[in-house]
Design goal:
- With 357 residues, the protein is an alpha+beta fold.
- Among the domains are: 73-212 and 308-346, no CATH class; 217-286, no CATH class.
- Helices cover 20% and strands 33% of the residues.
- The strands form five sheets. Strands 5-6-2-1-18 form a five-stranded mixed sheet. A four-stranded antiparallel sheet has the order 4-3-10-11, with no helix packed on it.
- It is extended and about 95 Å long.
Length: 357
Amino acid sequence: MKFKINTFIRFRQLLPPNPLKKPLRPSGTSPKNRGGVALLASIFFIGTMLIISSCRKLQQEIPLNLPPFKSQLAVECYLGNPDPTECALNNLVGVQAAISNTQDYFAPVNLNSLQVKGADVTVSYDSAGKTYTFRLDENLLINNCDTSNIKLFNYKYFNYSFSLDSVKIGTTYIHYPNITTKKRMFFHTGLVYTLSIDDHNGRVATSTTQWLDTVSINSISTTFSARDTTYNLIVKWNDASYNLDYYRMQARILNMDSASVVKRGHPLKQDVTFTDAINNGGELVIGGPYRYKQGDSIEVKMFHIRKEYYDYLRTVGAAVNSLGNPFGQPATIASNVTGGLGIFTVLPWTKKIIVIK
């Protein structure tokens, strides 16, 4: 190694000087110690290479003995007052559940193995044991529906449902005349609902949830940004109680055509979750980015949600953000389902529509 260093130094000294270029000389360095500077630079370079080569020796494969994979029931089921607008578009008024099998992360993707067929799915409530039985929608089985738009990380599809001809929220009835099932469900504060799923393969999943009060939106206003001629929303509403409450707010542009979607992105412009910790029991205010333009018809929905659903949304978001990120923290998705994974919750909501003029 010393021979290589000395040879390098001598080679540099034997090079003829370039008459067109002034010799580089560090400030305060005399010609006598330029050779010493070159020697130090060479030693630094060789030392760095030795460190890098030693680091390579530290790399080794460690076999991990993972436990055998065991598939579980994955569940998403929401109870709430159906939106008449959405019901008119989808010709469905009722409660839906997405029930599937979890799949081994390291195994090849198999859509058929995700399906849960022939399960008994029920929701019951009140002291009389009022029970609703879900039916399997054969049209939503993987082999019968278009899967081209299904994301690789989320095969959710609502494959079990039951229809309602009316709901009662507090003392208010909402009727849906296009449904003739003669089934009615009651939603009022404190009422407890129980979900039960039996796949007849030895797996039983259960969960409970409780209805919450809806909240009324007091006002929706806008502020204008002259820089890019856009608007934002300012939404105000009264907090539901002096307890710690959780909310989800969505704002969607209703009058976007396909060309506008290509130019401006998805119509859902805001989807945020938050608590009332800042002003518990008082009037709450939430703003947002400047994403709206003059002429936009905007639907604002305010959901009063339970803590378990708040935790579920936050952990799902963290898990999605960590996908493909070598520096991301692994996320465990919060669940309130016993005997499976997922969420069963109520979704009381109110909405208002404004047009920016």
